[in-house]
Amino acid sequence: MMLLAHKIELRPTASQAEYLDRACGSRRHAFNQLLAHFSQKDVKWSKKAANERYKALRIEFPWYAEVSQRVTRNTVDDLHNAFTHFFRRLKKGETSGYPTFKKRGLNDRFSLREKPKFDVEGRTLRIEKLKTKIKMREKLRFSGTPCQVTISKRAGKYFASLLVDTQDYDPKHQEEESVGVDFGIKDLAVGSNGKTFAANQKLKLSLELLARKQRRLSRKTKGSNRCAKAKQAVAKLHYRISNQRLAVLHEVSDYLTSRFKVITIEDLNVKGMTTNHKLARAVSDAGFGMLRQFIEYKAELRGCTVVVADRWLPSTKECSYCGFKNNEVVLGVEWWVCPVCKTLHNRDFNASVNLDNYGRDTLQLDPKPYTRVASDIPRCAAVLTV
Ligand SMILES: [Zn+2]
What we know:
Elements: E1 3-11, H1 14-38, H2 47-60, H3 69-73, H4 75-91, E2 108-112, E3 118-121, E4 124-127, E5 134-136, E6 145-154, E7 157-165, E8 176-183, E9 187-191, E10 196-198, H5 201-219, H6 225-259, E11 260-266, H7 270-274, H8 277-286, H9 288-302, E12 305-309, E13 335-337, E14 344-346, H10 347-362, E15 383-384
Parallel strand pairs: 8-11, 11-12, 13-15
Antiparallel strand pairs: 1-5, 1-7, 2-6, 3-4, 4-5, 6-7, 8-9, 9-10, 13-14
């Protein structure tokens, strides 16, 4: 069984949002009631006792029944996990980690872990006891059976984290044999087939906006109404940014793994790269580490091979046509002509071809004939000739 998670923003109507809020509230109430009970002196935690206590709570608070009963019932499992965690730490001599009471507005969430209690259909989500279906911002990325949904609320938005059993995942059959991918700052990724993924401009704008909003926030008086408003604006923007970033990374990794049998990427030493201050921001913004993770797990799902090239491979300096190593190609050189064979190279594209060749070599595939693609033709005049 392979489980994959996908978090999707929900677009509930006002009355649906009210239901979700009520469910979050019931869950929080039940959890806190249970925790208060088992935090008393002389009351020992056990799952059996918790189930008994829960039955009593359901009678005491009949409004639990207004939402799916599983919303409150699952708090027994949640608290069981929290206590197990705490006892494990206690054994090791740590005293922290005692379960804490849930606060309104913090960790507003509830889970449904039973298949008949919810359903995903296209871009809609059905939940028990809610008559209408909730719209989702996108459909599930994986095919398979959803086996758990956790609905959470943050910064005024609602999200569904769906856990999907992908046993029946149907791997795509990649049509093309291999590709090399060069990661960069100007373009996020350049493939040896000529496909280029530009760095996300929207993301860049959002990051600039974030810096401005954070400055504004720092000038507000703490605890004031305006401060709270500015805080929420920052939180909202943080969300947008992480979504924008993820969207691009998924796009690139989906493209590669659904199209190519062999994918060769660089072993980016992201830690080493981030020590250079100016590069640092751009590197962490691009999320290379995450991109590599995405490519690797999707490759496993879809049955393709990922080759990670040696960090010291001179992929940018080497002429992909004749193999001459040109040490003049330094950071900032976009176009260059090989002094030996006179081939004109685009720095990133040439690197991606070298990576592809490296991967094919490693797997002992036949060498590919050298072909020029559209993006390998200069768009600007600055060409380095030696
Ligand atoms: Zn050459």
